[in-house]
Design goal:
single chain, 363 residues, alpha+beta, 55% helix, globular
Length: 363
Amino acid sequence: MNAETGAQADEDIVWQEQAAPQKDVFKESDMDSLHILPLSVIPLETSALAKAKMIKNIRLESVIELFNEAKTGSGQLRIDELDREYGWPLDRPHADRTIIRKLASLPSYDVFSLRIALREQNIPLQDNAQLQLSEGKRQELAEYMRSFTRPLIQEIYGSENLAAANADDLIALFRDPDVKRARERLELMANKLEIEVDGVPKFLEDYGDIFLSFSYYRQCLDRVTPLISDLVDSLDIIRNNWQLRHETRLLRVCDDVERRINDSLVHITGRFESFDKSSQEMWDNLSAERFRKVEKLIKSYHTTIGGVLCALTIKMRAWKRMFPEKSNIGPVKFAEFIMGELKQGLEKVEQIDAAAPMLSQLD
């Protein structure tokens, strides 16, 4: 067994003990997560895997998590251990091995990038409807969504006083508009979009979903940004420590970690600014073509943004759990964390970012 932080167990399973309980700002359901994929949604032949999850660990590696309990910790299998664990033949292809390896290569397991990645990898789902955020998360994103629902409401009702709680409420609102003036505006909007009035609900569903994804990623960014700032500021604890400030290799790693993380944050923030600009300009001269361009622009970055945010969130989550209070950070322990865990896999973030398409602009 490779025991990272735990007691001896089955030789194939990595046990990871839970850290001391802390308030976790990232705590949410599996389908709302960036780094967890319940394998129950994937049609696999190996029934034992239906109760397992594929997760990204602190090194940004994909592993199979068999259990995760407060008392026992997290029991994990590496991908290369599955053949022996489940008796998959080595002399011929096995369907589950193929699927698992494809899944392991994905940079994020959020529902929006998964929709694209699973289609591209020809991986079927047990039920396509499962790739949805939970109702609780959708309600949580209502405040983020208002900036996108407001121009729609104004377009239809000529007022910003009507508030939709989420995308579903918005769609319901326009499916059965109870104001004559709204009906007239609905027809005007259909003309702009060059569709029948009956086609407006489908447009609204697409609109709601694409900006729900935008809102989801924006919330993830808002959660991780202050933790990144806190981490970067805390690096001075090492740089100013009399015992560590002459450790050349350590200081070089600190500089490299800071650069990689800051660069990723700058790039992803720039993309959000481009999305904001494009979505605002869309309403200046609304048309189906302009909306589809915005939709294509945002969707083309789902995998990139999901992957970068997944990596940064995992790293910052580990940082916060290890050092919940800045005033109690021990320089030596902090240095060990940076060298042993924080720096591992950060090059993958740059690779995800570098593979992104060039930013497009609407005409």
